[in-house]
Amino acid sequence: MRGERREERGHFSHLSLLAPLAYASFIEELTLFYSMRRIDEIIIHCSATPEGRDYTVADITRWHMAKGFRTIGYHFVIYRDGSIHVGRPLAQVGAHCRGHNAHSIGVCYIGGLAVDGRTPCDTRTTAQKESLQHLIQVLRVRFPRIAVHGHRDYAPKACPSFDATAEYQI
Ligand SMILES: [Zn+2]
Hints:
Elements: H1 2-8, H2 14-17, H3 20-34, E1 41-46, E2 49-50, H4 57-66, E3 76-78, E4 84-86, E5 104-109, E6 112-113, H5 126-142, E7 147-150, H6 164-167
Parallel strand pairs: 1-5, 1-7, 2-6, 3-5
Antiparallel strand pairs: 3-4
The protein binds zinc ion.
């Protein structure tokens, strides 16, 4: 049933939604950072934007630069259609979770707030859930012992509006 609906809407697998260029740079960065910094953790975030609204890497880059960051603080951003986009190069330390940036990868999905723009809410689309799972699986191939946590495990905030530690436990 679900498969039929997808076909009607002309969906492709999320892997094919990853632009070839982004995928090439993803592989390159994986290789690069493997020799550059120790990574032992994936930290999941939300963009803290209202349900049903699309934002891009460019938007988040602008917000983060306005806060004084060099560029976007996250390494990956997952759009509402499930496409996975590269943010800050993996070889570089991110800026997304105080005290945990040096050794982690920051992954952000677009959403995390109800339509009121205030109430924390797990707004992940089915495609976003699948892509998060897929990205974590890919990273686990390279880093078998990598841990997965949500931002809220380390800071007094709701981000990413769901229990990432429980959901992505091995
Ligand atoms: Zn966060």
